[in-house]
Amino acid sequence: MEEVVIVGAGPCGLSAAVELQRIGLEPLLIEKENVVHSIYLYPTYMQFFSTPELLEIGDYPFSTPNEKPFRLEALQYYRTIAARRELRVRAYHRVTEIKRGTDGASYELNVVDRSGSVTTVAARSVIVATGYFDHPNLLGIPGEELSKVSHYFREAHPYTGTRVTVIGGSNSAVDAALELQRAGAEVTVVYRGETYSPVIKPWVRPIFESMANKGRIQMRFRSQVVEIGPSTVTISSEGKQEVIGNDFVLALTGFRPDRSLLRSLGAAFQENDEVPIYNPETMETTVPGIYIAGVAASGRNANEVFIETGRLHGRWIAQHLASKKGLLVK
């Protein structure tokens, strides 16, 4: 039986594993994709908002010549830590259910590998550190199921010479619009807000505003896409609708955490049924021995918890487990 199983090998899951090693435990990490898969899904040339110090885990320095690190640097940093610490990562295995063991004091995890084979892993404690990139916030409008629609943006090259509608006004939407414009796409940004979002990176906003003011990017405030057709989108703004030509839609409207594992255990949630109830000092849920880390502790808006805050969750969990088991924190 495993002492601790961590579901998810993102930055917060890796941080928890390193912290657990410091109290003498060797947790098993079960990851449905590859290490830090959520960062892998970020746009290819994305630059973080955070400084490298705020992305560090396990007191390992994040060395970079840049004031703000890039996605490729983060991928190398986190996978290097996983290798150096010899973390036990079982990649490409999906946890489909967590249930109480027959002894009433442990848990059983149903795990499916890439071939569909199912195994069971027993553990005394479980840390749910699942991300959110598999669950985009859907628009719920006609045409959203068309192949031209994506909730992810990787890079602009495939969109060269096409008409692209970007839905959203956050950093992901702004970064995508700028990259698309530089690659020669005809870009329209549709945003519900009255004006530019205050969360846009301060070094990016002036560039984006300049492109919009010059008409190189069409910016539609107080607007929303209400229908997507094979070669058009319908935009509603202040009671009026307009149909414009369109080849691709990037619905960059954010993501939400997956609650299925916690629900299967009977964990309690707040009244809005979105945020799990947990002890903020230990990260333990209402189910004894079940902890959460990273965006699993956030509500519908996954941006409530960043790497720079979620990376601390593992330390609190390790301290709690150490106190329960009489282990020494190194």
Features:
15 strands, 24% strand, 2 domains, seven-stranded mixed sheet, FAD/NAD(P)-binding domain, alpha/beta, 330 residues, five-stranded parallel sheet
Explain this structure.
With 330 residues, this protein is of the alpha/beta class. It has two domains: 2-134 and 255-325, FAD/NAD(P)-binding domain (3-Layer(bba) Sandwich), CATH 3.50.50.60; 149-251, FAD/NAD(P)-binding domain (3-Layer(bba) Sandwich). The chain contains eight helices and 15 strands. The chain has helices at 11-21, 37-40, 71-84, 171-182, 205-213, 260-265, 307-310, 313-325, and strands spanning 2-7, 28-30, 88-90, 93-100, 107-113, 118-128, 149-150, 163-167, 186-190, 217-220, 223-228, 232-237, 240-245, 248-251, 290-292. The strands form three sheets. Strands 1, 2, 3, 4, 5, 6 and 15 form a seven-stranded mixed β-sheet that branches. Strands 7-14-8-9-10 form a five-stranded parallel β-sheet. Strands 11-12-13 form a three-stranded antiparallel β-sheet, with no helix packed on it. Strand 11 and strand 12 form a beta hairpin. The longest helix has 14 residues, at 71-84. The radius of gyration is 22 Å and the shape is globular. The two termini are 24 Å apart. The relative contact order is 0.17. The mean pLDDT is 92.
